[in-house]
Specification:
The complex is a heterodimer. Chain A has strands at about 5, 10-15, 20-25, 30-40, 40-50, 55, 65-70, 75-80, 85-95, 105, 110-114. Chain A is mainly β. In chain A, strands 2, 4, 5, 6, 9, 10 and 11 form a seven-stranded mixed β-sheet that branches. In chain A, strands 1-3-8-7 form a four-stranded antiparallel β-sheet, with no helix packed on it. In chain B, a hairpin with a 4-residue loop joins β8 (about 65-70) and β9 (about 75-80). The radius of gyration of chain B is 14 Å and the shape is globular. The chains are: A mainly beta, B mainly beta. Chains A and B meet through β5, β9 and β10 of A and β5, β6 and β11 of B.
Chain lengths: ~110, ~120
Amino acid sequence: DSGVTQTPKHLITATGQRVTLRCSPRSGDLSVYWYQQSLDQGLQFLIQYYNGEERAKGNILERFSAQQFPDLHSELNLSSLELGDSALYFCASSTPSQGNEKLFFGSGTQLSVL
Amino acid sequence: AQKITQTQPGMFVQEKEAVTLDCTYDTSDQSYGLFWYKQPSSGEMIFLIYQGSYDEQNATEGRYSLNFQKARKSANLVISASQLGDSAMYFCAMRENYYGGSQGNLIFGKGTKLSVKP
C-alpha cells in the first residue's frame, strides 16, 4: 500500500458529462501529481501541485482542471467528457528532498466515457 | 523527440533466470534522476529503484539493479532470479534537473511487458 488514496476506483459516465476524481496524498507529502494513462499515449503528466499551489503543468486539456486544498488532498475535474478521455487516471505524491524524491502512486481511477 | 525509450514492448523470461529491460534517455541536463516502476495487472504503480546522474555506483534494491551507463545514456533494469510475481509492465522514467530544485514530475517511457514462464 503506497499510502496514496484515490476515489473512486471506477467511474462510468457519458459524453458531455463532468466528473471529479479525488486524491489523498501520503501523510506528510506536500506535492500531488496527476497522470493520465491510456493505451495510445502511455503515461502522460497532467499537472502538479505543491502545498496548495500549482507547480507545473503538462499535457492537461483546458476542459480539465485541478486544485489542492489546505488539507493537501487534491481533486481533478474533467468536464465536457469525450470518448477519448477514457483512461486510467493516477494521482501520485511526494515530498521534495535532496536526492531520492520518489513518486508514490495511488491505485488509480479507471474512467470509462460511453 | 522521445525523452525515454524502451525498445522492448514485450519480453519473456524463464523463472529463476535473470532478465534485462532496456531504457535509453535523452536529456541535456547534467542533473537528472532515473526511476523504474512496476505495474502489475492490478494497475497500481510500484516504485522499484532510482539512480541519480551523479551517483557513481549502480543502484541496487534486492533483486533489482540498475545498469547505469551515462555516456551511452542508458539505464537498464536487471531483475535477478525472476519470479512468477515479476510478470508485469515495467516503466522507465526520468526527472530532469534532479538536484537543482526540479519541478518534480517524471517523464515515462512506453513500458515493457515482462512475462515470467514457469
